[in-house]
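Kindly inspect this chain:
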Amino acid sequence: MAKVKLSTSVSEFQNFIKQVYGPKNNRHYSVWDTLSNIERFAMRSLKGIRKHDTAKTKLNLLITLSWFMSFLNQLHINLEEKTWERFPYLCSYCASSPCVCKKIKVKTRRKPKINNQLKPKTLHGFQEMFQKIYPKESRTLEHAGIHLAEEMGELSEAFHVFQNNHSDQSFDQVILESADFLSCAIGVANSSKIEIAQELSKMYKKGCHVCHKTPCFCTFEETSQFKS
């Protein structure tokens, strides 16, 4: 039975979502629909922040990540690989860890040097990496939430552009924004003290977190009306 473990890697989680939800999502949802569901649950997560409801923030953030993986699977984007290229234990803009963008007002993006020996092997490792690059102590939870909303908009915009021209350059921008979105989703988790791998291992210990089947047996109507 497909399940998420504490030691699960980003790629293994992405593949888990493919096994559990791929057949159903590919049948019932266009990439646009999947993107809409990322937005749907990301905004609910932000509502949890506004209401100081950590449980609501956590549940919706985990569901956001699940829809996000489905989106990437539909586009055949390897998130772990692309995130590491974008954030090799360094800020993608100032190329420092911790990030010094605010201190030195970096005007142009610096190309980070990649040391593959530092690459995290697990999802938890990636969460620790982003904590070191962007310490939660350097921002409020509300600021982390605003940053997630900003990146949600940029991911949507990048996909809109790609759908208009279908160029490789535009698709590359979707990839970059996907890595940025993950960094900000993890930023919210770090600021909320949510251990993503631990919580996903609880949520997905028996396939789908609702019907507990692999592949998922939930109907389109049940998924559309799911309350979180």
Summary: The chain is about 65% helix and 0% strand. The first helix runs from residue 10 to 28.
